[in-house]
Amino acid sequence: MGFGKGDHLHLIDGSAYIFRAYHALPPLTRKSDGLPIGAVAGFCNMIARYVDGNGTSSDAPTHVAVIFDHSSKTFRNDLYPLYKANRPELPEDLRPQFPLTREASRAFNLATIEVEDFEADDIIATLAHQARDAGGRVTIISSDKDLMQLVGGGVEMLDPMKNRRIGPDEVAEKFGVAPDRVVDVQALSGDSVDNIPGAPGIGVKTAALLIQEYGDLDTLLARAGEIKQPKRRQVLLDHAAQILISRDLVRLREDAPLPMGLGDLEVRAPEPAVLLDFLTRMEFRTLSKRVAGKLGVEPPAIPEPPAAPATAGAPAPAAEPEAQVPFDHAAYACITDAATLADWVAEIADKGWVAIDTETTSLDEMRAELVGISLCVEPGRAAYIPVGHVTGGGDLFGATAPAEGQMPLAEVLAMLKPVLEDPAVLKIGQNMKYDAKIFARHGIRVAPVDDTMLMSYAMHAGLHGHGMDTLCEQYLGHIPIPIKTLLGSGKAQVTFDRVAVCDAVKYAAEDADVTLRLWRRFKPQLHRAHVTTVYETLERPLVPVLAAMEMAGILVDRDTLSRMSNAFAQKLAGLEDEIHTIAGEKFNVGSPKQLGEILFDRIGVPGGERGKTGAYATGADVLEDITTMEDSQPQAALLAARVLDWRQIAKLKSTYTDALQQAINPETGRVHTSYSIAGANTGRLASTDPNLQNIPIRTEEGRRIREAFVAPPGRVLLSLDYSQIELRILAHIAGIPALKQAFRDGLDIHAMTASEMFNVPLDQMTPDIRRQAKAINFGVIYGISGFGLARNLRIPRAEAQGFIDRYFERFPGIREYMDETIAFAKANGHVRTLFGRRIHTPEINAKGPGAGFARRAAINAPIQGTAADIIRRAMVRMPAALDGLPVSMLLQVHDELLFEVDAGAVDETIARARAVMEGAADPAVALDVSLVVEAGQGPNWSAAH
């Protein structure tokens, strides 16, 4: 055994093979137990093709090894902690496949090497160096550009997908320099994928030109002061240390401590028994037959197991098309006795999954009564358990009685509780948060869960809604039974407990059946859509967190709200009198038709536009435009301003101070909002019933409403709020040095922007100039137009457009970001956040009035979506971080989290919660700008904020 002149070493980049296999094939699972094996299957097929192709090749290797990364952390992380910090977390279904690919390589009788603290590339470099020194040849089977520095002197690369050899000429074509200078070019250009900083603003082409001119990196840096281009010169002078660190990161080590020598890598034929045993265990039927034929042995028999996977959370196996299993309402079962339910529970435990749905008397989970539970274990095999149906009560005072043929609720829950809480049984739902809260109120903690609504949201945000009826029709080609056919509508509408059990079985069991079919369809598609990580880290784990927040609720002082309502009523009356005086006549201030007639017909404001009903448009935008007409239409301008004031107070009274009193739960004394995880395309949560996210805080009246949200005796409300998170994300994504530096220095970002734009020193900044810069800062994030900014600032449109033009001149990276984002959206039909959330932009190529909105939405989505992802990550981590403290997380309002905490634990809670929030992007994304969280506390929400 040895290696020397005339020998030929093949080094297979095994880690690259794994990822290529994972992304090339749809998700597959081993049918016997649900183990993910899609990447293993692709890997084995590639290795089998390699073995077949090189067995008869005239240039066959004499030695071969498959090289793997040992882990994600190596010595490079000690050199530069942010190295590869922005790489997304491994998909849930890929992680368990890594050890299987090592086993696969050994099964094919190929030497398999991985070394702790070193990357696969370093091992390849070490072996290539040794083989070259020994007089042999080396072929690196990979297309990884980082390995191109090794080419030359008997070392070449082979791109296995294109069957293309890569020698010195091909390297020079890619990098513009010979292989021995590739490291210098990479040190300058950096690598965003691996988070190697390089020299800001210098790409591969510029780097190659510099190295060609100065010979090598050390000479370039030593003579950087001679470079004529001032920006390029300054970058090299300012970032020399960073560039040298980058060189250390990209340069491959040739001294990795190897567990075996070159002589141990001699080519060996596979041992049939070993290889076929592995392929049999993986249940690779087709590949087993092909390999057995090549080896001249009988293929093994691999039985077809009847059972579905029993591993909770594992993707479903490839199923027959759901259309082959028709929806048959007559086949659904009605469970009315313990023996039948026990059989279903046993089957659920055996399978390891169940689609589950609840029927209740209300959409308010905190007040709803449980009427029935539906279960489904296979397409078409579903059942309904009625527990709360009643008969009678035909009129207002009519008595009701339990419907016949129902099991006692307590007995049903006692039998279901073990499987609903069993960590080995996956509970599948559509909007699972609702059902989880219903069960939680009955003492059952449902976990683990999968949610088809959230799967659809992760894949299809921006394309359509994610309700069950929409998904069922879109993806299953079936229209489910409409709920209105059972409940009726209007005054005749009834609650579900009054639906006849025989009708409820068809409707409720169908819901569970649809849910299971959607799950079988969606679960494997998460990977293909590249959103597995989004679903597994941002969507699914948020369900129990939000459920706990919603059930906790927030204490509201009814007396405070009542006093505010009375005060608002008096203010409205005063405003009405003033409005009537200005108008010169009495009219219904709340009537847009009457207001329009006064403004446009009697006062004579020009430009009035009538709608289809013939009434003038008097929306807020129209009235705001009129308020700018102080010179030409002073009466109308004053009237419009007072009507806007009246509308604002009227909305505060009706939407908040009146409605919130009705929303107080009589049992808890608290308001329990409901968060929609799939409510906004960008990932923002939406608060409903009641909406606590839209309480105005820019006016004194709006801020006062928060005074009604209070802490109970001995506790305080604690608010933690991200400071200007979207501007920080913009600075990172668009790469704006001035903004980044301002945030690092802790400057007033709006004053800094004003100083940059208007050439006004910070010590001479006026509130008006700062206000204009603030409007532009936030407006740009939302793709504001000159017209929109003019309206916001109440200045001429030309002046507003001039502000925007000047802004882009001072910060050109923002315009580049916008153009690149729109181009990407047009080419791909979607944009992505930094964490991989996909937001579809179906209207991006539209023309006409909607085109501008679509472009603005595409520009804003990665920024707002990334901010939403960050606070989601913080919320998911928060329960563990605050464990043991007397604290409850109550509300999320975009960039703010509100807690209720014992007075003595405030400081510790702030410290822990702030650490979670400020570190929420780590380790998935390494932001150039630090996240800053501001904290406040007080007896009520207003004081805390």
Q: Mean pLDDT, nearest integer?
A: 88
The biggest beta sheet is recorded as: 6 strands, mixed
Annotation, overall tally of beta strands: 24
Class derived from helix and strand content: alpha/beta
Task: Give start-end ranges of low-pLDDT stretches.
Answer: 306-323
Rg (C-alpha, Å): 33 Å
Please list the strands of the largest sheet in the order they lie side by side.
3-2-1-4-5-6
Shape: globular
Distance linking N and C termini: 74 Å
Domain DNA-directed DNA polymerase family A palm: 702-905
Pfam family, one: 5_3_exonuc_N
Organism: Ruixingdingia sedimenti
EC number: 2.7.7.7
Compact description:
Residues 7-268 form the 5'-3' exonuclease domain. With 945 residues, the protein is an alpha/beta fold. It starts with 7 loop residues before the first strand and ends with a helix.
Describe the structure.
The chain is of the alpha/beta class. Among the domains are: 175 residues, 3-Layer(aba) Sandwich (Rossmann fold), CATH 3.40.50; 203 residues, Ribonuclease H-like superfamily/Ribonuclease H (Nucleotidyltransferase, domain 5); 107 residues, Taq DNA Polymerase, Chain T, domain 4 (Up-down Bundle), CATH 1.20.1060. The protein has 37 helices and 24 strands. The protein has a six-stranded mixed β-sheet with strand order 3-2-1-4-5-6, with helices on both faces. α7 crosses α11, α14 packs parallel to α15 and α30 crosses α31. The longest helix has 33 residues. The radius of gyration is 33 Å and the shape is globular. The protein starts with 7 loop residues before the first strand and ends with a helix.
